[in-house]
Amino acid sequence: MFSGEKNNLKRSAPNPGGSLRNEMKICHFIFNKRKYWGKLENDLIYIFSGSRERFRGEEAGVNLPAVDRQAVKLLCPFSPTKIVCVGRNYALHAVELGNQIPEKPLLFLKAPSALILSGEPIVIPSQSDRVEHEGELAIIIGKQCRKLTLDDDPFDYILGYTCLNDVTARDCQKEDIQFTRAKSFDTFCPVAPFYETDADVSNLLVQTRVNGELRQSGFTSEMVFPVDFLVRYISNQMTLKRGDLIATGTPAGVSKLFPGDVCEVSIERIGTLTNPVICEN
Ligand code: MG
């Protein structure tokens, strides 16, 4: 199995200015039959009085009422019109599947109907005998953008970041000419029920564990094409709309999932995404 723990030794200096950032985990939830926005801190959710936009920039956490995370029903905090995925964006993953490292981002789409939240089961479909995990950092677009140039700052168009599992039916992917079916079975896009604002994502540890065993490990600094490059590049191929997701690729170590497994994607500073695996009846 991939021994990624040693990668901890490779990391560079901590993110500059991290403590000066306005980092918050934003969530959307139902409490007492009403929908709210709030920020998640450990097991507490601080409830915003209004929209998340109004809150942004206010002094964090001042006199906000709090509720226990277990007392609410978390909802997906973004509604993508599309989920744009980047294939082979970590060199070692490209190599492990016998592929070349791409010269430009390899893009494909994942159906938004595949979205599920942390805690919900990944369902292995009857069409596949090899479903694999791909833990990834996901970008959430905050502002519509099209044809960004080198004069534009792509980070101005990013709402936040979350954990995503680009679940893949590897046998279907190899059988078909393209990736649509392999990537878009229902439940094949687990995401964390929150997003982190303002994090410096240039060098974060991305890990995937199955039943507690480390399978994938890599740093976002190892991406072939980094976050800002991807947003600018994709905006030149198609209009990116508020709420759209970009899955930025997966480190080496993908492996087969079995019914009864529990798959966990964790990203430093961002959070953790956990899903059980079941078989289609
Ligand atoms: Mg992927």
Written account of the structure:
The chain folds into two domains: 9-75, no CATH class; 83-279, Fumarylacetoacetate hydrolase, domain 2. It has 281 residues and is mostly beta strands. Mean pLDDT is 89; it is low at 1-20. The protein is built from five helices and 20 strands. Strands 1, 2, 3, 4, 5 and 15 form a six-stranded antiparallel beta sheet that branches. Strands 7-6-18-11-12 form a five-stranded mixed beta sheet. The two termini are 30 Å apart. The site of magnesium ion has 7 residues, from loops. Residues 85, 134, 136, 166, 247, 249-250 line the site of magnesium ion (MG).
Tell me the total number of β-strands: 20
Strand content: 25-35%
Largest sheet: 6 strands, antiparallel
CATH fold naming of the largest domain: Fumarylacetoacetate hydrolase, domain 2
CATH architecture of the largest domain: Alpha-Beta Complex
Separation of the first and last Cα atoms = 30 Å
Shape: globular
Number of helices: 5
